[in-house]
Amino acid sequence: MTFNSEIIASTITTLGAFILVYLSVIKDDHVSKSKIIREQLEKFYIPFYKIYCRGFLSQLTLSDMELETWSCILDLMSDNLHLMEPASQAMYSNYYLAYLNALEARDGNPMFPLESTMQKLNETFDALCTSVFTEYITLLRKAKLPVPILPRQKHNGA
Q1: CA geometry: angle at 52 spanning 48 and 54, to 5°?
Q2: How many CB atoms neighbour CB 37 within 10 A?
Q3: CA distances from 113 to 107, 110, 117 (A)
Q4: How far from the centroid of its chain's Cα atoms is residue 2's Cα?
Q5: Secondary structure of residue 113 in the 3-state scheme
Q6: How confident is the model at residue 158 (pLDDT cuts 50, 70, 90)?
Q7: Cα angle 24-30-32, degrees, rounded to a multiple of 5
Q8: Cβ-count burial of 30 within 10 angstroms (0-12 exposed, 13-18 middle, 19+ buried)?
Q9: pTM value?
Q10: Looking at residue 14, what is its pLDDT?
């Protein structure tokens, strides 16, 4: 009986060690994902939301704002592109192009009619906001943080 009890004890010890290692790996993975989500929120999504709210962008169009606001959004995106979720990340080049075209239109370049170029800037920004806010809500829920009531976006012509 001694031999069997030694085998059983060794088996239980070995299984216990494997279970402990497995649970540690799962916990570390969860902690790592939580840190990434927090970094995404702190460095991109929350600052984007603040710019949106402080600029009253739910009531105004982006083209109504100063160039500084446009640039602030571009800088935030550029500095944190690696932290953005794929859908918003894919919109970066669209926003950048609309931004550059709007600068040309404001400088009077005849190849960029002011009204249609500004409308394109607003439409691009509205699409970006929809994507960013959808991702923002998802990340907040994953982090088990309260989800704010997001302001309704102003649609062009509204």
Answers
A1: 115
A2: 20
A3: 11, 6, 6
A4: 61
A5: coil
A6: very low
A7: 100
A8: exposed
A9: 0.80
A10: 84
